[in-house]
Amino acid sequence: MSETWREIVAEWQGEDSFIGRDKRGISIQLGECNEQPGASPMELVLIALAGCTGMDITSILRKQRQKLHSFQIRVKGKRADTYPMVWTDIHVEYLLSGDGLDPQAVERAIELSEDKYCSVGIMLRKVANVQTSYRILSSKIEAGQELSM
58 — phi, psi (to 5°)? Predict the structure, then answer.
């Protein structure tokens, strides 16, 4: 087990808003502050899942010499109706495009992320039903492009 502690600071901004900062000074606003919307803590958990698994998969695909042109991860979740209202069901959809992407390489990268590397996903699987799917698209995914879910 790692002996290194990680530390963040969350500073209250008034009402239900906080600014969270890490030791490098990277910050994120949680909750609305002065009419400026911020992220909800539970949505940040889904964002953390997408980022964690995404970094794993891009690294694995690079090692497999797969030519990835675009990659989008869509995560949706359903929460319990009663407190503490944890995530009960989560679906992760991977949308990839690239030159000759091998479906078996993509599946293996997803499997390794799910079973071995993505600490956020592994932790969430202890409390939620996490399902995944993927699609290899023929054209590059543009930023903000809406695809049917």
Answer: -65, -40
CA distance 84 to 80: 8
| Sign of the dihedral defined by the CA atoms of residues 79, 128, 41, 37, in that order | negative
Q: CA distances (Å), 37 to each of 58, 75, 127, in order?
A: 30, 20, 28
Which residues constitute the domain of residue 27?
1-39
Do 10 and 20 contact (CB within 8 A), yes or no?
Answer: yes
Which of the four pLDDT bands, split at 50, 70 and 90, describes residue 140? confident
What is the pLDDT, as a whole number, of residue 88?
98
Instruction: Give yes or no: residues 86 and 130 share one domain.
Output: yes
Mean pLDDT over the full length of the chain: 92
Task: Indicate whether 31 and 46 sit together in one domain.
Answer: no
Q: Quick check: helix, strand or coil at residue 32?
A: coil
The HSE-up count of residue 140 (CA atoms within 13 Å, CB side) is 7
